Amino acid sequence: MIDTSGGVFVVADGMGGHNAGEVAAGLAVESIRTFVSDEDRPSAGGLEEAVRAANRNILDTAARRPECAGMGTTVAVALVTPTGALLSSVGDSRIYRLRQGRLTQLTQDDSWIAKLQSEGVELTQSEIERHPMRHVLTDVVGTRADLAPHAEEHAFEPGDMLLLCSDGLHGVLRSDLIEELLSADGTVSAVTEALVSTAVANGATDNVTAVVLRRSA
């Protein structure tokens, strides 16, 4: 999307009927950006509180608007600072970093599959694709009051790229293809467009959202 030396960037993939998912995603983005802009010093704790604020906003809105009951959203947030990037995610929207041509996933999914893997269950890619619980999330923003988001700082050096994306993208593109597309020559905008169009061409049926950041010198 852009070359950057700072700022807050959010991908939110909403869920819920009657356009409630879109409402939840919009509330999450607005809440997080507003909270972060009011912070004097960016910190992991502050970013966690920003996600909790989004959670409260969605729950409060759902309580006032019956048509929005049960809505929620995934989030992936990158708060770029002069020394790195503070990252947080809830659900299965992800953040990757490309450094010197090598892709690393920096966030972990809140999903049934990720839970199984964390417990030592080994699954091949083919088994994951066929698993009956592959789309089940264990956490999203806006469905329970005791949400406990986690944030941490990662190095983000000149030349590095960050990709924030929904499962509509990473669910159909293998990591090696994401790595190849991010490594291509061209503007950040062109790289972003290539990621989205390739996901669509590969049969994506869910929302495909991608934000690409490159650390400027």
Question: What do you see in this structure?
Answer:
The protein has one domain: Phosphatase 2c, domain 1, CATH 3.60.40.10. Helix content is 36%, strand content 25%. It has 7 helices and 9 strands; from the N terminus they run ββααββββααββαααβ. The protein has helices at 20-37, 44-64, 112-118, 125-130, 167-170, 175-183, 188-201; strands at residues 2-4, 7-15, 72-81, 84-90, 94-99, 102-105, 151-154, 161-165, 210-215. A 5-stranded mixed beta sheet has the order 1-9-8-5-6. Strands 2-3-4-7 form a 4-stranded antiparallel beta sheet. A hairpin with a 2-residue loop joins strand 5 and strand 6. It starts with a strand and ends with a strand. The relative contact order is 0.19.
Properties at a glance:
217 residues; alpha+beta; Phosphatase 2c, domain 1; 5-stranded mixed β-sheet; 4-stranded antiparallel β-sheet
